[in-house]
Amino acid sequence: MEKELKIYKPDSTSPIEIPLAESSVHAGFPSPADDFLEGQLDLNSLVIRHPEATFFARVEGDSMKDEGIVEGDILVVDKSIEPYNGCLAVAFVDGEFTLKRVKMEPNKILLVPANPKYNIIEISPDSEFAVWGVVNYIVKKA
Q1: The CATH number of the domain where 17 resides is what?
Q2: Which structural domain, as residue segments, surrounds residue 59?
Q3: How far, in Å, CA of 48 to CA of 134, rounded?
Q4: Which residue, 11, 52, 90, 94, is most buried by CB atoms nearer than 10 A?
């Protein structure tokens, strides 16, 4: 099985405001007119919609690497979001946390990895299973 996720509660009580550029970032040459700041952006208010139900989780393992999610990435997990077909979710299966894409089919739920070396997990009626939370942001190191 894969490594477990490390889960943290965010501190959303004090805003962290960072200057926000007025225009988007282009992949070509920057325009000299783009030296203007629009204001402040609080990352907590951007990524945390429900502070009481939001957690951060650090990714360990490589089961989602083909979706660009790699070891060390930080997931912003919201437990108040109802799981839906195709969502990226942290699930609790038979005593372990796992990060997978949820696929809901008639009469069954599949947890789909994004790495061919891992098998799809089919949730059986005998499985200890819960979608712990839905991932709504991924924080990556450049």
Answers
A1: 2.10.109.10
A2: 1-142
A3: 12
A4: 90
| SS (HEC) of the chain | CCCCCEEECCCCCCCCEEEEECCCCCCCCCCHHHCCEEEEEEHHHHHCCCHHHEEEEECCCCCCHHHCCCCCCEEEEECCCCCCCCCEEEEEECCEEEEEEEEEECCEEEEECCCCCCCCEEECCCCCEEEEEEEEEEECCC
Q: What is the pLDDT of residue 32?
A: 57
Selected residue with higher pLDDT from 24 and 1: 24
Active site residues: 63, 100
What's the total number of domains in the chain? 1
- Per-residue pLDDT of 117-139, as tens digits, reads 999 999 988 899 999 999 999 99
